[in-house]
Design a protein that fits this description.
Shape: globular
Keywords: Iron, Metal-binding, Oxidoreductase
Number of strands: 12
Domain Fe2OG dioxygenase: 208-308
Largest sheet: 8 strands, mixed
InterPro entries: DIOX_N, IPNS-like_FE2OG_OXY, IPNS-like_sf, Iron_ascorbate_oxido_reductase, Oxoglu/Fe-dep_dioxygenase_dom
Helix content: 25-40%
GO biological process, one term: gibberellin biosynthetic process
Distance between the termini: 46 Å
Protein name: Fe2OG dioxygenase domain-containing protein
Length: 367
């Protein structure tokens, strides 16, 4: 896009779609290569949590086996009968969609500022200049004990973003976050079982953890083969719980192919991130994924990222170290988060590149 063109923030994706796709949104072919055929979806397990939640030991054993198989393969599975109220999910979708349907100038009133968790982002154009994702986002968090949490800032965000109903909508967001936190701790317990780890280890590790909520809106694109809704990456966080609508677009890289994750009514998608890969001493890998966009349909997803407390040191349980060596040095979630915000754009190799950078930085500090 030439220098005389309007700012990205003054345009909508709809206006882009009527004209040429700006160069800033076009991804290189090696990252936007072809997806598997439509009938070759990811064969991830669909795990019914009802038995586990009810305390059935045989159900828990079978679930742990399914989770282990998925996490050794590609790091993603879906859960049903998860205990999150469908009405609450639908309310979230409705309010989020209403916000994204506002004029761009209205949305920019709550623009996310550098270094802040709260706010709206148009294609992450505030952070990057190339390979922009074809999406808009809202980010927020609700951890009262988290350093930097400001309840007044939260109130201002919701009032500016949602108008007269902001208090009611703020409560819906917070209730959804609390439901996801509860579910995350259940899944962490299952992950511990699947790894043969003492039951309390991961529960205690994440009990005082933090979380980030991100609502994603992917508008239609007249040339979907040129753009990506989200580029190939692994989440740097520990665990992601995603609710996607029925349009589809999430893909996982496995066996040298990008495979679509089929949307399922009532299901939530669970994927592992870099923090949990390090916490498992590399037994489980982060899930490499991306999001493609649709030519004629918009897509909405709600992503909940579970993280440990910022200053908690990532140390695997002894059962996963045994006589072998540690694959990763001691570091904190704060170390990795700052790396992705200040030094590195998250991709599939974030964790390994972070460790290289972290070791070099530590040597420089010690010398």
């Amino acid at each position: 896009m030439d220098s005389s063109a309007p700012s990205l923030h003054s345009l909508s994706f709809l206006e882009f779609s009527k004209n040429l796709i700006p160069q800033k949104f076009i991804w290189p072919k090696e990252e936007n290569n072809i997806t598997s055929k439509n009938d070759d979806h990811l064969n991830e397990p669909i795990i019914d949590l009802q038995g586990f939640i009810n305390g059935d030991k045989e159900s828990a054993r079978l679930i742990a086996e399914q989770v282990r198989s998925a996490c050794l393969s590609h790091g993603l599975f879906q859960v049903i009968n998860h205990g999150v109220d469908t009405k609450l999910i639908n309310l979230m979708h409705d309010h989020v969609k209403d916000f994204f349907n506002l004029p761009i100038d209205e949305k920019m009133k709550v623009q996310r500022l550098p270094g802040n968790f709260w706010g709206y982002s148009f294609a992450h154009a505030d952070r990057f200049s190339l390979n922009l994702p074809w999406k808009e986002t809202i980010s927020c968090f609700f951890d009262q004990n988290r350093p930097g949490f400001d309840s007044d800032e939260a109130a201002r965000f919701f009032e500016s973003a949602f108008g007269e109903e902001f208090e009611h909508i703020r409560w819906i967001f917070q209730e959804y976050s609390e439901a996801m936190t509860k579910l995350s701790l259940t899944i962490v317990e299952i992950l511990g079982m699947s790894l043969g780890v003492k039951q309390s280890y991961f529960e205690d590790f994440f009990q005082d953890g933090n979380s980030i909520m991100r609502c994603n809106f992917y508008p239609p694109c007249r040339e979907p083969g040129l753009v990506l809704g989200t580029g190939p990456h692994c989440d740097p966080t520990a665990l992601t719980i995603l609710h996607q609508d029925q349009v589809g677009g999430l893909e996982v890289f496995t066996n040298n192919k990008w495979k679509p994750v089929r949307p399922r009514v009532g299901a939530l998608v669970v994927s592992l991130g870099d923090i949990f890969a390090a916490l498992s001493n590399g037994v489980y890998k982060s899930c490499p994924h991306r999001a493609i966009v649709n030519k004629s349909k918009e897509r909405l997803s709600l992503a909940f990222f579970m993280c440990p407390r910022e200053d908690k040191v990532i140390v695997p349980p002894q059962e996963l170290i045994g006589s072998s060596s540690r694959l990763y040095p001691d570091f904190t979630w704060s170390d990795l988060f700052k790396f992705t915000q200040k030094h590195y754009r998250a991709d599939i190799d974030t964790l390994q590149n972070f460790i290289t950078w972290f070791n070099m930085t530590r040597k420089t500090t010690l010398s």
